[in-house]
Amino acid sequence: MTVLKTSMRNFFAHKGRMALSAVAVLLSVAFVCGTLVFTDTMNTTFDKLFAATSSDVTVSPKDASDSGETTSDTGRPPVLPASVVGKVRGAEGVKSAEGTMFSSSVTVVDADKDSLSPTSGAPTIVGSWNGNDARTMKITGGAAPKGADQIMVDADTADKHHLKLGDEISVISATGTHSARISGFAAFTVTNPGAAIFYLDTATAQKTLVGRTGVFTSINVTAAAGVTDPALKKNVLGALGTGYKVQTAKEVSDANQKELSGFLDVMKYAMLGFAGVAFLVGIFLIINTFSMLVAQRTREIGLMRAIGSSRRQVNRSVLVEALLLGVVGSVLGVAAGVGIAVGLMKVMGSVGMKLSTDDLTVAWTTPVAGIALGVIVTVLAAYLPARRAGKVSPMAALRDAGAPADARAGRVRAVLGILLTGAGAVSLYATSQAGGATEGSAWLGLGVVLTLIGFVVVGPLLASGVVRVLGTVLLRPLGSVGRMAERNALRNPRRTGATGAALMIGLALVACLSVVGSSMVASATDQLDKTVGTDFIIQSDSGQLITPEAVKAVKSVPGMERVTEYRVTEADYTTPDGKTLKDTDITAADPTYAEDVRTKTVAGDIADAYKPDSMSVNEKFAEDHGVRLGSKIKVDFKDGSAARLTVRAITSDDVVIDKGAMYTSTATLAKYVPADRMPLDVVLFGSSEEGQQDAAYKALKAELHDYPQYTVRDQTDYKQELKDQIGQLLNLIYGLLALAIIVAVLGVVNTLALSVVERTREIGLMRAIGLSRRQLRRMIRLESVVIALFGALLGLGLGMGWGASAQKLLALEGLKVLDIPWPTIIGVFVGSAFVGLFAALVPAFRAGRMNVLTAIATE
Prior knowledge:
With 859 residues, this protein is α+β, with helices and mostly antiparallel strands. The chain has 27 helices and 24 strands. Helix 15 runs antiparallel to helix 16 and helix 17 runs antiparallel to helix 23 (715-758).
């Protein structure tokens, strides 16, 4: 009880000094809990949606996906004959069965040809209005579509694009473009996470999406009273046989959730990873805080020891303070985490994915995990200072000698740090010599961990050297104030090293990712310059296939010398070694593709692969299956017949564009696949006639105005788009890393604030002999700047080393250009100086306001 009272008294006596450490714990816990609440809410929202929109049993074509996805490489959804509906209705336990038609391989535009598709990445769905949809949607205006000239729109999409009854909109699909006027609006009775949905009558939906009537994409089956979904599924299978996919509502919902979980898991673990970085940075802040508090309470600890307190009790007293700090910071962090989750939902809403706060999900495990993590990390971080406090000798403490200096421990630490850093450097070198991505990734991970730990351990030794260099260059020219700032930073190298290490971690990740991102852009640009010989690239940024209408429009543009079509489909390969490879991609392109993209080969000429009944294989495939020039491979095309194709070229794996692709000609594909089952183009390549590039570029954009899902880019545009995409990804990562940097800044503020308290008497004496308030504040600001720059130097140097090693792994994938983004590196270094200035504002202001006589009298 005495230990608890002492800890409580000390905690509240130093509540101002604890505040910044509590904020660090709060931010880290909030990020963890916010991530968990947000992803749990996403899961809840989609679970409700999938459960509400699934019929008791769904019957689909055998080649439809488990999740009900209707896209295919032909641009048309897989279908089943309408006669199946009658068979299903005759099955025992069926109350009703209704055929439906829908597809997500569509684009919908308004009268101005502007896309009505979501910008959030959610799908655009066009389907037939049916009884199952009527259960989950309510018509809020107008009426359901009747006839080919009517279409109904979901209310969210209508509100977003200011659509009104009677407005004309057009559906663009693989079969052509169908225009209709809005007959009504339907609102979801459950949360719609952002999909744009359009309804036609059944016959019009069939003609628009697949070009013929008498077929459906699925059949919604409702069970009679007392019949369970599994029993109904069994009965339907008995009536239909094995030629169809039959699923219960739970199976459809689980398949949809599984498909979604991949995206959510990536986002969840990425955000938790950044929270982990923030926790790691916070550890340094907590260690520094408690180390300095222990040092400032040396005499108090000595008195406690002198009146009978044991080492264990002193140790326990400090750990109880840490426990209180962890509990307070973690509880506040859990509450802040819910706020972060709501904020993330609002952000998602601004880009079109609507998430209702009614579905906000806070599982009991979230606060438990957040509080447990925050408390454990805080107590572990305070363990070393607590252990050090327990070792304070009563007599030494009463003499104000503090904890005994341990020179031997310092030497051991320095040697250990150098060994770890050296081992890490060897691992990073091994990364550059690795022959495969798996081996290289293992060496890279080991090198990153070892060098990071090594730099943290050897930090005090580095601080002694680096701060002196920075002081010589930046501080000593500023006179006595600069020299005092340098001396203060060097006074406790361990503290300076720990404070700089906190900033080092965040900046090391920033530098590493900057080098990797810049190298990827430079390498891809280099590959484009070397291999791409076409003027224009036409494709959909959302992954939509290119419809025959759009291909015809591109080919009609004047001034074009050639247009190359490029398709991808699947086939089963039977190789000379007798093995069969199922569902393997094969690329079918026009022979001019050999001119558009200069593909490197290790044997044969790539142009020969486009001859009749010919193909190419990639280098690894050839090695694995004993394929040589002239080998025959049986290729059983999806939706087509089997062919025996002759290998005319073996492509190199030392490429970036189309790495691993196996080519044949469009004519060969058309020979074995019926016209109505031919896959649509993934991308088109166009080259203009000499001197007509600018005119053809403008003409292409004008011709594709009616098809907003496709983008025309020349090589300059393509390079810029690549740069922008990587830049956006890096900016997002930098934003997440900002959390770790904020915590590191709090660490600098805390260190300076406690350092000012520690040096109260010294500051009073300096003021008494003539140091002005302005000079005092400048001294503290310069001390902060040099600590920040020390951390920045370590972080940027370490990060560039990691980035250069990571680039060696990218080189195995053909990205061979190492590019150091010096403007970013220099900008971050200079920015670190401003971070130091900002962190020193409050401590410098408080130091300047000290009463001289009171400060001198302080013991």
